[in-house]
Amino acid sequence: MKQLIIKFNGAWILSHQNDEQLPIECLKNKLKDFSNCEIQDSALTKLSVIFNEEETNAEELESKIKSVLAEMYPQEISDDIVSFEFDDSYDDILLNFDDSDDDISLVLDDIAENKSDDDDTDGDEEDSNEDFKRMERIRNRMIARIRNEDYEIVSDDRDSDTILSEIDDLVAADSFKQLAREIIKIAPEIKEDCRSEIFINRSYLFSIGEGCGLSTYLRLFAELLTSLEIQDLKTASIVEERLNYKEDMATFDNVLKTLSDDDEDYLKIVCIDISEWLNKTDSSVFKMFLRQLEKATAKNIFVFRIPFVEKDVLEKIKYSLCDLLYIKTVAFPPLDRKDIKSYAEKQFDGYKIKVCDKAWDIFQDRISEEKKDGKFYGLKTIQKVVKEISYKKLLNNVEDGKNCNKITLNQMRLYCNIEASVLSAEAQLNQLIGNEAVKEKIHEIIAQIELSLKEESIDSPCIHMRFIGNPGTGKTTVARIIGKMLKEKGVLRVGNFYEYSGRDLCGQYVGETAPKTASICRDAYGSVLFIDEAYSLFRDESDGRDYGREALETLIAEMENHRNDLVVIMAGYTDDMDKLLKGNTGLASRMPYTIEFPNFDRAQLYEIFASMVKKRFKYDELLLETAKSYFTSLPEEVIKAKEFANARFVRNLFERTWAKAALRCELNKEIEVILIKDDFEAAIRDKEFAFNHSKKTKIGF
To answer: Which residues contact 150 (CB under 8 A, 6 or more apart)?
Structure first.
């Protein structure tokens, strides 16, 4: 056996998009008349044919196909339009395949046994061809496995009630649960009157975020369909493919290859991620792709996946797909705090671990930490955090010689690496070094809020704020304290702190930004939402692909609608924040308070460093003397530079110092780490801290 691969130029294929049949389909129909060759798979721009070289010469086959193409498309066919490749390795696949793969081996044994039985009888050509086709389907699956493109096979003997019970146990996913009930309700009507085609031909548009359980929903969907036996099938296969955006017909080849295995024993559910095509679904290339899918709806159920987007965008995508397919939309909103807790509880229960009520706020803080980098993967991230905490709990039990399955508040703080503060917000504020003007401004704001709470005749003030200043001047620290202070005063019901950068509010695709921003705000209800580098949300109006303005508009609406249950603090450089406010006139009026954070002077920088040392380590006095001399001699151009990180610079230097000390103690086999002058001097020799190196005298002339 040998394989011939016929490849067509994508632009040429596209030029025939309005033909009654695409070139690939026309050629496939012609090849049916060729003896001793079988079509293996096809795509929009490629066709694979298997033939027996002993009966059909390769060169003759290529020549015959060229003649057929020239007859169908006179004056068009050339080497630039079509090319041919022969693959001699096709026969080797069976030999090199892992025989330990039980399901494939059993099928091969079955075919061999049937073939042996056939040899004892006269048989006929039709049976032989059927065996050939079955073998080709097996070969296709083998190739798919070798290429890591295998299907997930679902075969479940459970009844629909059992599967529905599992679906009902899912967190949130109300629209999916409604879909399941709808299918169960209509199944008897479809089966009884042989109307399964009506159901099978329907495709789906799932609007769901990354890591939010798509594979689980697909599995349950497949299990439900097989349990209902709508097509008298007890097995379904699930295929997940992602379409990268590229205006090239070859982009769709992998998906169309999946459809080429027309095994009637399987109901195939093909999930296609079209996120990168969100605003390109009306293009001629994509419409041609949909035409190919439409032809395969009799044997395949298509599920299109996009991120969770606004309802109007979802409807727009549905409308575009509905040109050729019958579409049902299913939306999966992001999990809120209640959903997160419910899902995490089930995960902990699976490990026979309980979490005390007071510890859940700490768990939610840990989840908010996971969200900060903009790479939160929903259920998968929650699973990861639960497993990590559960492991630490079990290790804690072993070390303490206990068998306790309940996680306490203090244990959750320890496992999540979130320190408890016994000091009041007022005490924390007073402990801050410098920033006297900042403290005075905060006291003024709190006094106004307290007065409004006492006097019913006074409207509650809008308490969203702007923090302006250079990096490391204490903006984040003060924002945390304000949240705690407002909680203590009864203004905020939760008092947690959520920190994001401006661009974290923006989605990657059209329509994704508003739901993402709204979800971030929803997490922060009753707390402080701190947005660093907020000016990054404002871009020039000519940048049509930027989603910062959309994020701002959603954020402003949330600030207005939840002004009594949400404090938004935007932070950034003075000039950049001014540009942000000028670019959106509605923003300034909703942020009446501005707190300016000045740079720390040299003495304050030293004081911050000394406080870090005294709080964490033992040290010798020479260390502090050397540090004081270093900070006192920092050049003016360094501490006045816009990019100078102030307290952040100090913290980095402190961490570098004890890192040097830790290495020294390890090399000298010292048990206790004590910071000394040499550690500090080693740290300031690193280039990011080396501002005071004296010039060395050059030797020579």
So the answer is: 141, 144
Cβ-based neighbour number of residue 614 at 10 Å? 11
CB 274 within 8 A of CB 307: no
Q: Is 573 helix (H, G, I), strand (E, B) or coil?
A: coil
Last residue of a domain, one of 353, 388, 416: 416
* Confidence label for 622 from pLDDT (cuts 50, 70 and 90): very high
Question: Position of tokens 């702190």?
Answer: 497
Angle at 603 between CA 599 and CA 607, to 5 degrees: 100
- Axis-axis angle for helices 337-350, 360-371 (nearest 10): 110
Whichever domain contains 31, its CATH number is 3.30.1360
Boundaries of domain holding 131:
97-146
| Residue 694 resides in a domain | no
Distances (CA, A) of 76 to 44, 79, 285, 654: 18, 10, 21, 73
Domain boundary among 358, 383, 416: 416
Q: Is residue 696 part of a domain?
A: no
Based on the domain organization, do 174 and 284 belong to the same domain?
yes
Q: Are the CB atoms for 42 and 259 separated by under 8 Å?
A: no
Task: Report the number of distinct structural domains present in the chain.
Answer: 6
Q: Which pTM was predicted?
A: 0.73
User: Are 195 and 114 found together in one domain?
Assistant: no
Shared domain for 317 and 182, answered yes or no, is yes
Closest Cα to residue 569, out of 478, 473, 647, 490? 478
What is the length of the chain? 701
Domain match, 492 and 570 both: yes
Residue 440 lies in a domain: yes
Place of tokens 């000091």: 423
Pairing of strands 82-87, 37-42: unpaired
Contact 303, 215 (CB under 8 A): no
Task: Kindly state whether residues 251 and 347 are assigned to the same domain.
Answer: no
Q: Is residue 692 part of a domain?
A: no
The model's pLDDT over 145-190, given as tens digits with 9 standing for 90+, comes to: 444 444 566 665 688 999 999 999 998 899 999 999 999 999 888 8
Looking up residue 284, the CATH number of its domain turns out to be 3.40.50.300
Residues 162 and 274 in one domain: yes
Taking only the tens place, the pLDDT of each residue in 646-676 is 999 999 999 999 999 999 999 988 889 999 9
Residues 642 and 662 in one domain: yes
Q: Which residue has the higher pLDDT, 216 or 79?
A: 216
Closest CA to 239 of 148, 330, 347, 329: 148
Q: Extract the runs of DSSP E, i.e. beta strands, from 155-278.
A: 202-207, 236-242, 267-273
**Is the Cβ–Cβ distance between 366 and 413 less than 8 Å?**
no
Burial pattern 33-54, b for ≥16 Cβ within 10 A else e, equals ebeebbbbbbbbbbbbbbbeee
- 520 membership: H or E segment, kind and range: helix 513-523
Please say whether the beta carbons of 177 and 331 come within 8 A.
Answer: no
- Listed in order, strand segments (DSSP E) in 550-661 are 567-572, 593-597, 618-619
Q: What mean pLDDT value characterizes the chain?
A: 83
| 622 & 654 share domain | yes
For 504, residues 6+ apart whose C-beta sits below 8 A from its C-beta are 372, 373, 374, 520
Comparing CA positions, the residue from 578, 361, 577 lying closest to residue 475 is 577
Which segments of 35-122 does DSSP mark as H helices, in order? Answer: 58-72, 92-96, 102-119
Residue 661 has a CB neighbour count (10 Å cut-off) of: 23
CATH of residue 664's domain is: 1.10.8.60
Distance between CA atoms of residues 328 and 410, nearest Å: 48
Reported as a pLDDT band with limits 50, 70 and 90, residue 265 is low
